[in-house]
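Issue: ligand-bound run for 6-O-phosphono-alpha-D-glucopyranose - logging full I/O for the record.

Environment: standard queue, default settings, no custom constraints.

Inputs:
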Amino acid sequence: MRLAIIGGGGFRVPLIYGAVLHRQRFDEVVLHDVDQTRLDRIALVLEGQAAAHEKPVPFRTTTDLDDALEGADFVFVAIRVGGLEGRTIDEGVPLGRGVLGQETIGPGGICFALRTIPAMVDLAHRVQRLAPNAWIINFTNPAGMVTEALQQVVGDRAIGICDTPSGLCRRVAAALDASPEDLAFDYFGLNHLGWLRGVHDGRGDRLPDLLADDVALNRIEEAQVFGAEWLRSLGMIPNEYLYYFYFDTVDAMASKPRGAYLLEQQSGFYAAQPDSPQAAFAHWQATKDERDRTYMAEARDGHDLAPHDPDDPGGYEAEAMAVVEAIAGNAGAVRILNVANRSALPFLDEDAVVEVPCVVGAAGARPLAAGDVPEHARALIDTIKAVERATIEAALTGSTELAVKALALHPLVPSVTAAREIFAEYRQRLPVLEERFA
Ligand code: G6P
Ligand code: MN
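Outputs:
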């Protein structure tokens, strides 16, 4: 099988290649990027990785997108249109007005989607033409919106993934001294907007007892970050990204914007000229560890959380490989993925992309029914889905009216006036938006 990685010069690509080496499912990997320098830098890291492995998987690089796609069985996509410079603008503009500045939640996610969706739709058409049987596994954020836009072209062959639901499930399983494979996780929502409502083993739902047990609960990062009391009020465990809705993070983020920090860190990484593949791999590893340590600091700071475990089997590369294996092996495995709703969440229409447990096999990913959900969660999902839909439509049509509407409908944007001002500044600072929304 051949894997194409679009965004092949991206910093997280060695994670994927590591999983490819580990699982030995692919015979060839093709890395595509628009930036040759980034591609070369990552290729050197991969050489270092391959050299350390007894069974290296051959890879090549290209800046020709069609060349990368042709004949692919799986297409992994993780691109960042506008680079980290774009992310600093996505986050910085709202923060400058006292509004949340985050790459996927709130105005930042909307702006990121506005410039990403046209590129993704173009990619989907190319896949349709050059690799019509390929599965597109989308990591590109904001993953829910981007997957919904991809599905408008390729339907169910586009599947969105995120590492946060499975991460939560793993931590909950550990707190219950159980293995995740032995449990059924009743999780529902949209990408970066989900809740774990139940954890079933053969005997029943273990979540109520877990929520009542402070000691066990404290082993779960999400419980520490949100506080046991709030989890008990909800009767569920929210995805860590709900932190941005439930708690005020603007000041903490304004003092340390994530995009600006990463831009500096990554510029250093890509500019370095290691003298061997081994040195390149080691440098990448150290940079990655530093990135992991500072992830979501605005929520994690002040809590006595265990440092990131470098041997943690999770991460989005493991999630992507699990989907590949379930499809290639027709396994019928259950994974939490971003797929078309069908009737999983009965209050949304069938094409709305949702993040729910799915049965995954040779025919793709089929969502399991979540059924009715608590009213407060439903209300938030409904609102954010309306925001997502206005955003997708705005991205595809170049309508300023719709872009402003998407921003203004978002619960974390205080007013229509703020929405107009934020969009005007986005346009002013991002030439690609200025051009598209002329
Ligand atoms: C998690 C999310 C991803 C997101 C990443 C951001 O893994 O699930 O969707 O891209 O965090 O991490 P960063 O280090 O870029 O802030
Ligand atoms: Mn994610």
